[in-house]
Design brief:
The structure is a single chain. By secondary structure, the chain is mostly helical. Helix 1 runs antiparallel to helix 2, helix 2 runs antiparallel to helix 4 and helix 5 packs across helix 9. The chain starts with a helix and ends with a helix. The model has no long low-confidence stretch (mean pLDDT 94). The structure holds protoporphyrin IX containing FE. Protoporphyrin IX containing FE binds next to helix 1, helix 2, helix 4 and helix 5. The site of protoporphyrin IX containing FE has 23 residues, from helix 1, helix 2, helix 4 and helix 5.
């Protein structure tokens, strides 16, 4: 495997882990949250440098349904990343508290809440869009399972996605995205691992939905081509 591909995988795994930890906010400590926020922004920039071919071609070529969906997600993620950083700088009380940008805290709080939860969902959908590529890479390291094994894995994935629906309702992800909850609720009695497991299931749900949705889009494109 090429060094650049390995670096891409490391950066993508790093961003996924950091995103999950960021969603725990106070449960991992305020200062740790801020440093992780700065870290994910750094990886986001590296991710774009490594995938710069895609950005260079944004205004070139034909837009298929798949490409339109991919571009909408990319623009959404860019907006949420800018939103998280802009509001993070204003709200910071540790890592960036020395910066003289302090005004508009109430607005920054709302921007941070919206950017965090929309960003979480959009990044999970983005991950699902490229799931086939990741599975292709995984095949290089592990033997391809039998047909029965594949169905078992699909069943497990569907079960986790199903639990993700329950977890997203329990954790009120939709209410945060619609700004119906103005303050994030964190239960300090709850072990961190339970919180992370639920958010992983919510992430898996959106990865699952996006994976099958993009498969559907690719199928439509293929059918249109053969007509
Ligand atoms: C992609 C990056 C980030 C994500 C996903 C994220 C996520 C979150 C979440 C889920 C919360 C709790 C809900 C809320 O109060 O909004 C939160 C709060 C907070 N985050 Fe972030 N964050 C990110 C980046 C940052 C950065 C870079 C900083 C500062 C350097 C920061 C500072 C804060 C602060 C100060 C709060 C508490 C806000 C308040 O007082 O209401 N975050 N973040």
């Amino acid at each position: 495997m090429k060094r650049k591909t390995i670096l891409k995988i490391v950066v993508d795994i790093g961003m996924t882990v950091m995103l999950l930890l960021l969603m725990t906010y106070e449960l991992i400590g305020e200062a740790a949250h801020e440093w992780l926020g700065i870290g994910i922004f750094g990886l986001f920039i590296i991710h774009h440098i490594l995938n710069r071919k895609w950005s260079r071609c944004v205004f070139k070529g034909k837009y298929t349904l798949f490409r339109i969906w991919q571009t909408i997600l990319a623009i959404g993620i860019l907006l949420t990343m800018i939103g998280s950083m802009y509001s993070g700088v204003i709200l910071s009380e540790h890592a960036l508290s020395f910066l003289p940008i302090k005004g508009g805290r109430a607005f920054a709080r709302e921007v941070h809440m919206l950017s965090a939860y929309w960003g979480f969902v959009l990044m999970s959908l983005h991950l699902g869009l490229h799931w086939s590529i990741m599975m292709g890479m995984a095949k290089r390291f592990v033997k391809e399972p039998s047909t029965a094994g594949k169905w078992l894995l699909r069943g497990i994935a569907a079960f986790i996605a199903g639990y993700g629906v329950y977890a997203s309702i329990q954790r009120e992800i939709g209410r945060y995205m619609l700004l119906e909850n103005h303050f994030a609720f964190f239960d300090f009695e709850e072990p961190l691992i339970f919180f992370l497991a639920d958010y992983m299931a919510v992430m898996a749900l959106f990865v699952w939905v996006s994976h099958y949705f993009s498969k559907g889009l690719r199928y439509i494109i293929q059918i249109r081509k053969t007509k």
